[in-house]
Structure formats: C-alpha cells, structure tokens
Design goal:
208 residues, eight-stranded antiparallel sheet, 2 domains, 38% helix
C-alpha cells in the first residue's frame, strides 16, 4: 500500500524539505538509537552542498554525520529525537519499504502489512496532525502458514525486506545491511539463512 502525508513542520526533515522544495530527500533507514533517539540515513538529491550545519540546527536533531558526496547527491546520517510518524511506525512494527521519499514536506512510501494495520497507522497519522492518505492499495494473499520466527529473526528479516535485500537486483549489500542493523555480517547472514530455511519449510508443509 502506497501512502503519502504532509509532515508536520516541527519534524526536522519537514522543516528542511519545506525550506528547499526543489530538493528530493531519500530516507534509506530509520532505526532506534540510544536514549530513545532515532537514526536516519538520508540522501539529498540536488546541487552539491554541505548541509551538515543547517541540518544540525533543525528541530530535534542531536548529531549529523556527512557520509560522502557524489554528483548531485549528498549522504548523511542524522541522529534525532523521537518523531511522531517514525516512532509510530516502529511501535506498530510496520514494514515500510525503503527508500522513503520527501519533497516539499510531503512524505511518500510503501507499507507492506495487513490492511487493517495500515489503516490504523494512517488514522493515527491523521489524528496527530499529519494529512495522510492512501495512494494505492495492492492485496497479496499468503497461502502458506507463517513460520515460527524469533523476534530477532523477524526484525532482521523485516529490515532486509524493507531495505531491498531480496529484490532483483539487490538494492543493498549484506555488508551495508549489517552496518544498518549494527550487527556483524556473519550473524546477519546466518540469521537470514535460518529465516529462508524456515520460510521454505513452511511453504513446503502447506503444499502437502
């Protein structure tokens, strides 16, 4: 399900985006950090510039790291305080496909979850002052029974799916995924191998 919403100007990413409406921001990860903070990896597409100082002075931002530049592209890691949409997404365990785009204060992304859960998320966004709407809806039925995954396995799998690890071609390497999850490359690889085996066994059992 694709959704979009006008982010409240009190959010750092909305404040920056509204000030620079011609720039396209692409969020590649949003994950919990220390002290109830959030960590976001973002690319800013537009004329090359160093936005560290400006981002550091935005509402709720604690720390900014410049990860590198490319033609018409800058990469940043932003540590910031809990924000309504991101905190709500993590609290509800929503699976959002990355990248999430932001332009002129409008956030766009694709959620992969039960319709009832997505509608709950959208309703909560509206209730908190974000003008959210469902852009498109695609139903996908799963015939196989759900495999028995641990909480850690489920979270790593969800993050891998959201980051595009299972897409063809892959949008993220195993090394980068491990860095995003703050885990070793070997532990992420082993966990995903276990998850894939359980998924295969579950699909096999359901077809018998």
């Amino acid at each position: 399900m694709k959704i979009e919403f006008h982010a409240h100007p009190s959010l750092w990413i909305a404040a920056f985006s509204l000030k620079h409406p011609d720039l396209l921001l692409m969020l590649h990860t949003v994950q919990p950090a220390r002290d109830r903070r959030l960590l976001a990896d973002v690319e800013i597409l537009g004329p090359p510039n160093d936005w560290v100082r400006e981002i550091a002075n935005l509402p709720g931002v604690m720390e900014v790291r410049h990860l590198g530049v490319a033609p018409d592209l800058g990469r940043y890691r932003v540590e910031h305080g809990a924000s309504g949409p991101a905190t709500l997404m993590l609290k509800l365990g929503m699976l959002m496909r990355y990248p999430i785009t932001v332009q002129n204060g409008v956030v766009s992304g694709e959620l992969v979850d039960q319709v009832s859960q997505i509608r709950r998320f959208v309703a909560a966004l509206r209730a908190s002052g974000h003008d959210a709407r469902i852009v498109s809806l695609r139903h996908q039925s799963l015939r196989s029974r759900q495999p028995n995954l641990t909480q850690v396995q489920r979270e790593i799998f969800r993050q891998a799916v959201a980051a595009g690890y299972f897409e063809v071609p892959r949008r993220i390497t195993l090394t980068r995924l491990a860095e995003m999850l703050s885990r070793s490359k070997s532990s992420v690889s082993e966990t995903l191998a276990v998850v894939e085996r359980k998924l295969a066994e579950s699909a096999s059992d359901s077809s018998v």
